[in-house]
Design a protein that fits this description.
It contains 20 helices and 16 strands. The chain is an alpha/beta fold and 516 residues long. It is elongated. The structure holds hexanoyl-coenzyme A.
Length: 516
């Protein structure tokens, strides 16, 4: 049978589509140790599930008449596929075509899959590798970004949005990932900045390399913009798949439930002795969390930024939960501005996507000092209060040691609407620590005493007897139960089960006005 020329033409076109910006540029991409957009998609998605959309779109000319070559796809591959059998919509920027830069048509393609993701209640995942706005297109490229940003904001809280950063993300382009739920970066390969090294050099004369300006290390430990990082593209894409296993496809679904291999009733005796009797000795809250949750299920987010706070996904008895806590061995678990921002955004992420919040509390309170006050600790601390008060998902808290002052109140306390409040026998619930309180309350009495030091000690001990335990708070109804630490896992698992049908009575309003 003769070959049908129309079919042959389609095959030729398809093969051109698959070549991206051509073999030379693919080799250049590989030489940099980077994968192509198509290779990335095949690692991200379940095998043979990807279906491409609009592969034949090309740019429609530019203001400077420079982009004479029209590459099908125009620098981004879009479509849908599956991750662990669930539908996701994807776009992967193709650096081999005009450096993956954003043109009017590229923006249209991205917006189209975003719209389909929203309409179908599926996550949208962007694989970013781009030189930013395509300079030749002028305002048309800029308008394209605006279309994307508007969708990022309007779809926020409806479908999960994840950016995997696999190369440059330069200029205002960084605002799309910043508007999304989670950013995963590849160490020493991806970077994000508003003003690139060339611009900085032109303006200030300073020569700075992209890595130290906006590499993964910067955004994971200094700016707090990225959420997770890995050493390779392969592990970043695998991490994206794993992250989605904690999240529902949209805001009206529940997160996936995994039949637990780890017994929800498991008790670990080591928890009963993990909090040292001496209040000045710290312990690892990470160890507490790892011991309580389903084995190896804790996925920490932003571990190196504001390390005095801990956030992350985990499973308990197979249920996805969001864990929030302090790390008492880092700055004593104090809440500072960055910790407040870190906790707030995560609480809201969990609330958007129906993940119950499990909060472990051990904090001496807000960080005192001129710098924190002048930088707005009131404004930032208020966000945590706002987020916990607003969250309608099941909320469970466990006070392990210090819950002093503001830390007691903001960290998922009962009258912020927390459903079940536990305390360990080591809990200390008070307006402030014993030493500070005694100095304020008994200043004159101590000065007048025959032996001021002995008097201070006596009064401090008396204060401790009263407040450095959970019994006073429990007797006044501020704690639902005092439990042995080893029981924590089974108590949380039972509470999660009991709170499954939680309903909320939120008043209709346009939206609240969270302090920012
Ligand atoms: C058009 C661009 C481009 C751009 C790169 N290219 N950036 N074309 N517009 N913004 C092209 C290059 O000319 C080259 O084309 C190809 O992409 C690969 O780029 P290289 O420079 O060869 O690659 P590399 O050495 O790896 O460097 C990548 C880079 C660098 C770090 C991204 O190209 C760069 O700094 N680009 C500018 C980044 C930037 O400042 N963007 C901000 C734009 S303003 P050929 O044909 O040779 O392969 C912006 C505002 C958005 O984004 C506002 C939204 C609110």
């Amino acid at each position: 049978m003769d070959k049908d020329p129309r079919i042959e033409a389609l095959r030729d076109m398809r093969s051109k589509v698959n070549q991206g910006g051509g073999q030379d540029r693919i080799e250049k991409q590989h030489a940099k140790g980077k994968l192509t957009a198509r290779e990335r998609l095949s690692l991200l998605l379940d095998p043979d599930t990807f279906h491409e959309l609009e592969p034949f779109i090309t740019h429609q000319g530019d203001e400077m008449n420079m982009s004479t070559e029209k590459y099908p796809g125009d620098g981004v591959i879009t479509g849908y596929g599956q991750i662990d059998g669930r539908t996701v919509y994807v776009y992967a920027q193709d650096f081999t075509i005009y450096g993956g830069t954003l043109s009017e048509m590229q923006a249209r393609k991205i917006c189209r899959v975003m719209d389909l993701a929203l309409r179908n209640g599926s996550p949208i995942i962007g694989l970013i590798d781009s030189g930013g706005a395509r300079i030749q297109e002028g305002v048309r490229a800029l308008g394209g970004y605006a279309e994307i940003f508007r969708r990022n904001a309007q779809y926020s809280g409806v479908i999960p949005q994840i950016s995997v950063m696999l190369g440059p993300c330069a200029g205002g382009a960084a605002y799309s990932p910043a508007l999304q739920d989670l950013i995963i970066m590849v160490e020493l390969q991806s970077f994000m900045f508003i003003t690139g090294p060339e611009v900085i050099k032109a303006v200030t004369g300073e020569v700075i390399d992209p890595e130290s300006l906006g590499g993964a290390e910067v955004h994971m430990s200094k700016s707090g913009t990225a959420h997770m990082s890995t050493p390779s593209e392969e592990s970043a894409l695998a991490l994206c798949r794993y992250t989605l296993s904690f999240l529902p496809s949209n805001n009206v679904e529940n997160p996936p439930f995994f039949l637990p291999a780890d017994d929800p009733q498991r008790m670990d005796e080591k928890l009963n002795s993990i909090v040292p009797i001496d209040p000045s000795i710290s312990y690892s809250m990470h160890e507490v969390i790892e011991t309580v949750v389903d084995r190896d299920s804790f996925l920490e987010i932003q571990p190196a930024w504001a390390a005095n706070a801990i956030i992350g996904f985990a499973r308990i008895g197979g249920y996805s939960v969001g864990i929030v806590s302090q790390e008492p061995s880092d700055l004593a678990g104090v809440i500072d501005i960055n910790a407040a921002d870190k906790i707030t955004r995560f609480v809201r992420l969990c609330d958007c996507f129906n993940l119950p919040l499990v909060t472990f509390v051990d904090s001496p309170g807000f960080l005192p000092g001129v710098d924190q006050e002048h930088s707005g600790i009131i404004r930032h601390g208020a966000k945590v209060l706002y987020a916990y008060s607003e969250a309608t998902v099941p909320k469970i808290s466990i006070i392990t040691r210090k819950a002093y002052g503001g830390a007691y109140v903001v960290m998922s306390s009962k009258y912020l609407g927390t459903d079940i409040n536990f305390a360990w026998p080591s809990a200390e619930i008070a307006v402030m620590g014993a030493e500070g309180a005694v100095n304020i309350l008994y200043k004159r009495q101590i000065q007048a005493a025959e032996d001021p030091e002995a008097e201070r000690k006596r009064l401090t001990e008396e204060y401790r007897q009263k407040f450095s335990n959970p019994y006073f708070a429990a007797s006044a109804g501020y704690i639902d139960d005092i439990i042995e630490p080893r029981e924590t896992r089974s108590k949380i698992a039972a509470a999660l089960s009991a709170l499954q049908s939680k309903t909320s009575d939120v008043q209709p309003r346009k939206h609240g006005n969270i302090p920012v």
